[in-house]
Write a structure and sequence with these properties.
A mainly alpha, B mainly alpha, C mainly alpha, A: mainly alpha, B: mainly alpha, Helix Hairpins, 3 helices, 75% helix
Chain lengths: 476, 102, 161
């Protein structure tokens, strides 16, 4: 029997796994004062993993079940990047408010590992298993503030809806397997190209798969967990959820639909189109009424996934590139905004938007950073969000989907209103508390990195674009 | 002789029973049990397809093994959260989670 | 003969499944879940999936449902508090589900599956074992990490501190 295992392709994954286990183990031997250093240790591990990802070869191994290509590399960098920013923002938060430091950081690393396997999967089985690895770790992380009722409750809610969506996804996969007789994306594509005709059961299986995955994306109509869980979860976990979990769902969608179900695009494009339009409208309209910054960012993240799906319906090379680019842009802007929220919360203990009044005087740095991140989320030049949205909409226009792009631009205008309400509070209102907020060095560095990413890609996107342009080659 | 359709319809019924429980139950453990029914219906599909579509390589049965393992993992974490909710806050029914809108 | 056994098992599964989601007493629901999962194991035997039937009984009936019963006993203390477990809005939910069911059944009966006429290996353990160690070794290893995460997570959440 021929053994087809080339472990060198998995060095980043194996390294991250061992590092996570080390974090769990080292935790036992540490005194309470030293525990925060586990956070820095995790960041070091993630940076080494990123370097290994760049350095390791591209190729296929494990009898075709694992694939390292530019697509998986791009998404790996997004997952690792958001994990690094999340952990950097979490160190103070964890020290003040959580117990079990080692488990907290270790579970973030293992969740990232699951997402990395997900981006490299080439069949429905490994995709499903790695998706669950990422998700189950997140169930635990959401409920991590055990003394806090909201956190525990949102953990239960996230788990119940997550498990239900996973059951729906599995049922959809089982029908698709029955219709095509195979689990690999390549095999499914081949079946659809040659003999298979479609039919109601095929459409049903696709609907079930989209339903199961759109839970991960937090897209309409499976977004209902999103605001409550974002509000209840520890804020660093919320930041991680809002970016990495969405990116993982997107990677799974692209793998399944662009690679496996590519030739029956006509059947599923209307579904994605509807989800995209609903997400943009509902996310932006409901966000206007929010008083809590985490809930506002939750609804805005629902809208953001709507923008990303605008490009999804184009099913082209440009679509893949633009979605990855936007995910990177979104990572910097959204996690950046959450780091500001965390810094502010560490000091004030409040997430209400009213409490941000007078922030421009208490900490000009935090206020201007927040404005830049929010403007990037709207898509105002010269922030990166403009470049990102430009490519997303260009991909849709290239295929002639004009009205959805018009809708995207119109809803962006609505989003400008509620994002700027936050800026208005910070700059033109004065609060009761006028004491200065000191930003601690780790958080300041994390914010600076997010700012640098947001401004750099906004002004000069070519290096990032050329780095990710190979990502779609393997798909089409 | 039971045909493939027999098994698929049985699994469809079980899936719908599970979804019904998911929508109507208000007790966290009851909801988790409904989700187990949904996982089982998917497994019946997998095993039936495995027998009728490609019996020689048993792909479907292998997927079922993984589904069972993952369902168990999810149930373990879920029940841990249920126990925590009960112990710290005396809550089992989702109803009592008042500020959480479904 | 086989069809008769199928109908008996199907009746057991459907009736006990319905009882799982409708019974007022959560403990009785859990017992019905055990019966239902046994029925599913019977279906696996009918489908010549001997290994899976064993896994179903050992892991699901012996593991998951016992875990559920533990959770019920811990949270209700069985004798003490009254066990509250009621349904909300069963009628609208039931109507939605009924239409979903009809949709599924119509789609299934309208679809012509490519049924292969090959014999399956007996026993299945050898084939499954070999597949888990070759084609599916990567997901198999990833599942071990999933179980590790669930283990650590459940301990972190459920322990007192």
């Amino acid at each position: 029997m021929n053994v087809q295992i080339d472990l060198s392709l998995l060095y980043p994954h194996l390294f991250l796994l061992i590092w996570a286990l080390l974090i769990f183990a080292i935790d036992f031997f540490m005194t309470e004062d030293n525990r925060p250093s586990l956070g820095y240790l995790s960041i070091v591990g993630l940076i080494i993993t990123a370097i290994l990802s760049f350095a390791s070869d591209k190729g296929t191994t494990f009898w075709g079940a694992f694939r390292a290509d530019t697509f998986s590399l791009s998404f790996n960098i997004i997952f690792i990047g958001s994990a690094i920013l999340t952990i950097a923002s979490a160190i103070d938060f964890v020290k003040d408010r959580l117990k079990h430091h080692g488990e907290f950081y270790g579970l973030i690393l293992l969740s990232t590992l699951g997402m990395m396997f997900l981006a490299s999967s080439s069949d429905l089985l490994s995709l499903y298993v790695s998706l669950e690895l990422a998700t189950i770790a997140l169930f635990v992380l959401v409920a991590f503030m055990k003394r806090d009722l909201k956190s525990t409750e949102s953990g239960l809610k996230y788990l119940i809806l997550g498990a239900a969506s996973s059951a729906i996804l599995v049922y959809g996969i089982s029908l698709l397997y029955g219709l095509t007789g195979t689990l690999t994306f390549a095999g499914i594509a081949e079946q659809l190209n040659t003999s298979f005709m479609g039919g109601p059961l095929f459409i049903l299986s696709i609907i079930l798969i989209i339903a199961g995955l759109s839970f991960k994306l937090a897209a309409v109509p499976f977004h209902m967990w999103c605001p409550d869980v974002y509000e209840g979860a520890p804020t660093p976990v919320t930041a991680y959820l809002s970016v990495a979990s969405k990116a993982a769902g997107l990677a799974a969608m692209i793998r399944i639909f662009f690679e496996g179900l590519h030739s029956s695009a006509a059947e599923w494009i209307p579904l994605i189109l509807t989800i995209s339009a609903l997400a943009m409208v509902l996310g932006n309209v409901v966000a206007v009424r929010q008083h809590n910054i985490k809930r506002l960012l939750a609804y805005s993240s629902i809208a953001q996934i709507g923008y990303i799906l605008v490009a999804f319906i184009a099913v082209s090379e440009l679509a893949t590139t633009s979605m990855i680019l936007y995910m990177i842009v979104y990572m910097f802007a959204n996690i950046g905004a959450f780091i500001v929220v965390i810094t502010f919360y560490n000091r004030s203990g409040s997430d209400e938007i009213i409490a941000y009044a007078g922030l421009s005087k208490r900490s000009p740095f935090l206020a201007i950073s927040m404005v830049i991140f929010l403007l990037s989320l709207v898509g105002i030049p010269p922030m990166a969000g403009f470049v990102g949205k430009f490519y997303l909409f260009a991909a849709a226009i290239q295929k002639g989907y004009y009205w959805i792009v018009v809708l995207g631009v119109l809803t962006s205008v609505i989003s400008l209103y509620y994002y700027m309400m936050v800026a208005y509070q910070m700059y033109f209102k004065s609060g009761d508390d006028n004491s200065r907020i000191k930003v601690n060095p780790t958080l300041a560095v994390a914010i600076l990195i997010a700012l640098a990413g947001t401004l750099f890609i906004g002004v000069y996107p070519e290096p990032v674009l050329s780095a990710i342009s190979g990502a779609s080659v393997t798909l089409f | 002789m039971a045909t493939l359709e027999h098994y698929l319809i049985l699994s469809a019924i079980l899936f719908c029973i599970g979804v019904f429980g998911l929508l109507s139950r208000r007790n966290a453990v009851g909801i988790l049990m409904s989700i187990e029914l949904m996982f089982n219906s998917a497994n019946i599909n997998f095993v039936a397809f495995s027998k009728f579509i490609n019996p020689d390589i048993l792909t479907g049965q292998i997927f079922s093994v993984f589904v069972i393992a993952i369902a168990a993992a999810e149930a373990a974490v879920g029940l841990a959260i249920v126990v925590l909710l009960y112990r710290n806050f005396d809550i089992v029914n989702i109803d009592k989670i008042n500020f959480m809108k479904w | 003969m086989e069809l008769g056994v199928f109908y008996i098992l199907a009746a057991v599964i459907v009736v006990s499944g319905l009882l799982v989601v409708t019974l007022k007493n959560i403990f009785h629901s859990a017992l019905m879940l055990i019966l239902c999962l046994f029925g599913v194991a019977g279906i696996y035997i009918l489908l010549h999936a001997d290994f899976l039937a064993a896994v179903q009984v050992l892991l699901y009936v012996g593991g998951v449902t016992i875990l559920m019963i533990f959770a019920i006993m811990v949270t209700h203390q069985l004798t003490g508090k009254k066990i509250k477990h009621y349904n909300e809005q069963p009628v609208p939910a039931g109507l939605i589900i009924l239409s979903l069911l009809i949709l599924l059944i119509v789609s299934i009966t309208r679809t012509a599956f490519e049924v292969a006429d090959k014999a399956e290996p007996m026993p299945t353990v050898a084939v499954i074992g070999r597949a888990l160690m070759t084609d599916y070794v990567l997901p198999f290893e990833v599942v071990s990490v999933v179980l590790l995460v669930a283990l650590i997570g459940a301990i972190v959440i459920a322990r007192r501190d």
